[in-house]
Amino acid sequence: MRFLQISVVLCALAATAVTAQQGNTTQPANPPPAGGNTTQPANPPPAGGNSTAPGVSCGVQNDWSRIETQAQLAQLVGTNCTNLLGSLLLAGPGITDLSPLAKIESVQLSIDISGTNLRTLTGLGNLRTVGENLFIHDNAQLSNVFGLNSLTTIQGGVLVYQNPQLVSIAGLATLTNINPNKSPRFAFGISVYGNPILAALDGLQNLKSVGNVVIISNNTRLNSLDNLPSTGPFPVQSITIERLPVIKTLTPLSVFTSAANGTALKVTTCDSLTSLDGISLASVTNLTLTHNAALADVKVFGNSKISGPIVQVDDNTKLCDLSPLQTAAGGVSGAQILNTCGKPQQQTGGSSTAGGANSGGFPGGPNMPLPGSGSFRNEARFTFVTAVVGLLGTVFAF
Ligand SMILES: *[C@@H]1O[C@H](CO)[C@@H](O)[C@H](O)[C@H]1NC(C)=O
Ligand SMILES: *[C@@H]1O[C@H](CO)[C@@H](O)[C@H](O)[C@H]1NC(C)=O
Ligand SMILES: *[C@@H]1O[C@H](CO)[C@@H](O)[C@H](O)[C@H]1NC(C)=O
Ligand SMILES: *[C@@H]1O[C@H](CO)[C@@H](O)[C@H](O)[C@H]1NC(C)=O
Ligand SMILES: *[C@@H]1O[C@H](CO)[C@@H](O)[C@H](O)[C@H]1NC(C)=O
Ligand SMILES: *[C@@H]1O[C@H](CO)[C@@H](O)[C@H](O)[C@H]1NC(C)=O
Ligand SMILES: *[C@@H]1O[C@H](CO)[C@@H](O)[C@H](O)[C@H]1NC(C)=O
What CA–CA distance (Å, rounded) separates 102 from 116? Predict the structure, then answer.
């Protein structure tokens, strides 16, 4: 059942269209921030305060403000708001201009920009901090994320996914901190997936913290992993490198090291990858290494310890020397290390890779709380559970 759940979530992430809704279509309310009221921005009352106060607040404490039109946006923000309470969902094609947000400096919880026809993020130029996650997804016209000129800190994760016209995330270049406290509450870290024409990861190079999770998946024209941050080391709990048919090397991943209890690693359906050089994980858990058509060299595991419960290596036609894996994973019960050397490649990419998904872990971090579990934040649940529900049909096919 656990395994099925993981598959479900994985399929959700593989979804093309995230349209299905859970029974309750209203925006989920956010629970209070952990630690009681201590994460509350120290705002004075918006009206009647003294004029030298640190800022004017708007929005709804610990809840979502769902905004679908420019008029709603203008009404929410007013003229002088600098601190947006709660979370902001900017949803749908009625959102055409972010300039009403020009004075916003902080958002208490999350921002979700989805389904808009924005081409860029001009208007968010004073935004410095996001208290939970920044979601940018399913925006049909979004070409870049320029406009975030002051953004330095995201306490949760940054998720950029399924933006069909997105060519660049260089607009994230001011960002230095993702989950600097490595709070286990935040399951995303760097999550960039399903952006079919994204060519490069420029924009992530200045990060000094990355959170717990790195997912770079299904960006089919991504040329390389260059411009991941270079000044680590960053211990992470999971790394997912998936469906990146053009990348030739993983060397930029050398900045990521094992978390105290190991790092879940998934490398799958990367057709041009010949070796895993760059992986610098002393302790690998939950290894999935499948459907890599050119992969011939896994010597990098010579110095690793690989542990279960799931270790799956399959359908890597060129991979003939399995010894570094077998040594590293010696004795792991349930390890499925299949020698597919010289056998016809079953699966080399494309979009029908749900089977690959079934073999690994949750791309959102295999060890992360699943949607619906108590510790999974509601705003994330909003984004993902809807997808899960829509894709149950796919799962039943397994
Ligand atoms: C990959 O991303 C594309 C574009 O967003 C999407 O259409 C496709 O379904 C995704 N494929 C998988 C297997 O996730
Ligand atoms: C829907 O969710 C809202 C916000 O969480 C809640 O107040 C409401 O009771 C829910 N309605 C149903 C029918 O579950
Ligand atoms: C938290 O704030 C709410 C109102 O904002 C208040 O009712 C409650 O007593 C506060 N709790 C603590 C622990 O301060
Ligand atoms: C605002 O006024 C209060 C007294 O009403 C004062 O204690 C506080 O320091 C003032 N804030 C600023 C930022 O000057
Ligand atoms: C916004 O700030 C300006 C300049 O400080 C002030 O003149 C104006 O009254 C404020 N507007 C509101 C609605 O508070
Ligand atoms: C590793 O540790 C982190 C943080 O304590 C925890 O969230 C995660 O579940 C652990 N992973 C495993 C496989 O125990
Ligand atoms: C590995 O997979 C197991 C079983 O699915 C899961 O319980 C565990 O949290 C995973 N560990 C990591 C680090 O992903």
Answer: 18
In a domain, 311, yes or no: no
CB atoms within 10 A of CB 49: 14
Q: What is the pLDDT of residues 235-259, one digit of tens each?
A: 999 999 999 999 999 999 999 999 9
3-state SS, residue 280: coil
d(CA 285, CA 386): 29
Closest CA to 166 of 134, 194, 203: 194
Distances (CA, A) of 235 to 229, 275, 304, 312: 13, 22, 15, 23
Instruction: Indicate if the alpha-carbon torsion angle 114, 117, 121, 123 is positive or negative.
Output: negative
- Model confidence over 262-299: pLDDT tens digits? 999 999 999 999 999 999 999 999 999 999 999 999 99
Cα dihedral: 287, 292, 297, 299 (round 10): -10
Dihedral sign, Cα of residue 218, residue 219, residue 222, residue 224? negative
Instruction: Name the domain count of the chain.
Output: 1
The range of the structural domain enclosing residue 213 comes to 2-24+45-269+358-390
- Beta carbons within 10 angstroms of residue 62's beta carbon: 19
Nearest-CA residue for ligand 6 atom 14 is: 261
Coil, strand or helix: which one is 9? helix
Give the mutation target among 5, 238, 286 for probing the ligand 7 site: most ligand atoms within 8 A of CB: 286
Ligand 6: residues whose CB is within 6 Å?
A: 184, 237, 259, 261, 285, 367
Query: Does residue 174 lie within any of the structural domains?
Result: yes
> What is the whole-number distance in angstroms between the Cα of residue 29 and the centre of ligand 2?
8
With contact defined as beta carbons under 8 Å apart, do 67 and 95 qualify? Answer: yes
Comparing 54 with 352, which gets the higher pLDDT? Answer: 54
For a mutational test of ligand 7's pocket, the pick from 6, 256, 266, 367, i.e. the residue with the most ligand atoms closer than 8 A to its C-beta, is 367
| CB distance 53 to ligand 4 below 6 Å | yes
What does the mean pLDDT of the chain come to? 79
Determine the distance separating the centroid of ligand 7 and the alpha carbon of 265, expressed in angstroms. Answer: 11
**38 or 104: which leads in pLDDT:** 104
